[in-house]
């Protein structure tokens, strides 16, 4: 497509970079502005990529190269344990079963590796500007949208996509420009958990390809093996009480110290205390875990997607994966809107229809993810006697089949890019949009083989 439309993207993380890559592939012009000077900063975070996100990356020709870069790293076994260092359940070869069923692995890598890879995959690197913090939306009218950055520059486009995370400036600017709607929802945005996460190196006792869950008392661990000598930890703990809106704290180094101290002697495996892992950290961060699916995502020529419109607990690893899906659904609908007359720019009314549709298509799935992650976190933290009984007595008896059926719901309904083929990867469980009755919708099925 050779469209005159120009999309401004605010934020160059998972959502922003994957959207830029999609727009580039379908021939829609863009300019991405990222506040950090470094496009792939080391923030201590890891990311679990799942088949739903990986299939879209595969459509963007990013999958094989990403696997290669991450040394083909993927999850093999998954286990559950108690603080006594006792494994209550092990699912051997769970990762292999996921590949067989869905065509893609569960892949745990450094978040910065993914960002660097998305950036490297872009051809038009001059369209990514770093060290550009957007401070305001100057206007959004019938003609264009204009933004200003901290350094005093301004940029004009036809569409503005906020991919600027949970503390979204774009969302706050929409609230300012459109006082008739509640974009902030300070009575809904809440946090009831906090998470200390980080990356350690050369920790003995986390086996290759393992991902482990340790049940605590109002807290839990998620431990993962990463590429090379890396391993990842997440310690998620219940806050004293649920906090809302602007009462959600930001933590200091002192808070972090106090948070971790009571846990240093936790036996995370039979041979390993948390201290052994924490002492070998390259980096670690303590954050509150916000939860919300915002009701309103857009105003005029502006839409917010990714963490700026929805946020879930990390335990099921769907935040980033679903953000990639969101970018794909936005691309699909923009593309369809332009298809009829690529040389004509869509009107504000047409954009409103596109954005409303994206919000409508995505909201139920994101709400489901928020609920799922919340339930799962409650189980792992043994939050009630019933959940404790479930985690320690009934869960160990579950067959791998039950877990895999859960994944089927999680991955199966995933979105993908309508206009790009899906490379052939053998799988026994097709995605819902690959089912026979859906084939005609995606054009020539042979193109996908
Ligand atoms: C502890 C933890 C573990 C997680 N684990 C997983 C996982 O295993 N799997 C998974 O899929 N997801 C995971 N997530 C969720 C995932 O990290 C997020 O969903 C994902 O990063 C969202 O991407 P985003 O691009 O929307 O926002 P962000 O990653 O928050 O990026 C926002 C970007 O915008 C930039 N920015 C902000 N303001 C401005 C501005 N004014 N101007 C210009 N740029 C700006 C920022 O610098 C940043 O680069 C986890 C989250 C947490 C907290
Ligand atoms: C990754 O897997 C591919 C295909 O199986 C193989 O060709 C490649 O050599 C592997 N790379 C690494 C770094 O292991
Ligand atoms: C996966 O785990 C099984 C069981 O522990 C082990 O036999 C196998 O070698 C592992 N596979 C890989 C690729 O590490």
UniProtKB/TrEMBL annotation:
InterPro entries: FAD-bd (IPR002938), FAD/NAD-bd_sf (IPR036188), FAD_mOase_fung (IPR050562). One of its GO terms (molecular function) is monooxygenase activity. Keywords: FAD, Flavoprotein, Oxidoreductase. Residues 436-449 have a biased composition (Basic and acidic residues). Residues 428-449 are annotated as: Disordered. Residues 5-339 form the FAD-binding domain. It comes from the Eukaryota. Belongs to the paxM FAD-dependent monooxygenase family. This is FAD-binding domain-containing protein. It comes from Oidiodendron maius (strain Zn).
């Amino acid at each position: 497509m050779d469209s005159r439309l120009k999309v401004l993207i605010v934020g160059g993380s998972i959502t922003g970079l994957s959207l830029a890559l999609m727009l580039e592939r379908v021939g829609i012009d863009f300019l991405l502005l990222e506040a950090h000077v470094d496009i792939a900063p080391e923030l201590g975070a890891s990311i679990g990529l799942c088949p739903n996100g990986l299939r879209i990356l595969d459509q963007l020709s990013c999958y094989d190269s990403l696997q290669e870069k991450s040394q083909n790293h993927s999850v093999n076994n998954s286990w559950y344990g108690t603080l006594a260092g006792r494994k209550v359940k092990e699912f051997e070869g769970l990762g292999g079963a996921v590949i067989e069923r869905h065509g893609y692995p569960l892949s745990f890598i450094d978040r910065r590796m993914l960002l660097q890879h998305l950036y490297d995959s872009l051809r038009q690197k001059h369209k990514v500007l770093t060290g550009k913090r957007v401070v305001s939306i100057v206007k959004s009218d019938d003609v264009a949208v204009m933004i200003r950055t901290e350094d005093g520059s301004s940029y004009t486009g036809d569409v503005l996509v906020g991919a600027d995370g949970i503390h979204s400036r774009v969302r706050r600017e929409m609230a300012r420009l459109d006082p008739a709607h509640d974009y902030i929802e300070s009575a809904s945005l809440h946090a009831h958990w906090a998470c200390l996460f980080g990356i350690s190196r050369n920790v003995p006792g986390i086996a290759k390809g393992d991902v482990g869950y340790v049940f605590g008392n109002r807290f839990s661990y998620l431990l993962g093996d990463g590429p090379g000598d890396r391993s990842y930890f997440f310690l998620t703990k219940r806050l004293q009480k649920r906090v809302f809106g602007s009462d959600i704290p930001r933590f200091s180094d002192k808070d972090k110290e106090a948070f971790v101290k009571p846990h240093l002697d936790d036996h995370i495996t039979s041979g390993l205390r948390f201290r052994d892992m924490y002492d070998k950290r390259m980096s670690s961060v303590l954050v509150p875990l916000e939860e919300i699916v915002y009701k309103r995502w857009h105003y005029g020529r502006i839409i917010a997607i990714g963490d700026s419109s929805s946020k879930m607990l990390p335990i099921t690893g769907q935040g980033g994966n679903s953000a990639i899906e969101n970018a794909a659904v936005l691309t699909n609908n923009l593309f369809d809107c332009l298809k009829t007359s690529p040389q004509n720019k869509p009107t504000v009314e047409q954009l409103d229809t596109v954005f409303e549709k994206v919000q409508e298509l995505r909201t139920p799935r994101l709400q489901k993810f928020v609920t799922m992650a919340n339930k799962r976190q409650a189980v792992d933290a043994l939050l009630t006697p019933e959940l404790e009984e479930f985690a320690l007595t009934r869960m160990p008896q579950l067959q791998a089949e039950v877990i895999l059926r859960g994944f089927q719901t999680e991955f199966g309904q995933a979105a993908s890019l309508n206009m790009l083929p899906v490379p052939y990867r053998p799988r026994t469980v097709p995605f819902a949009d690959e089912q026979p009755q859906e084939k005609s919708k995606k054009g020539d099925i042979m193109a996908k083989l």
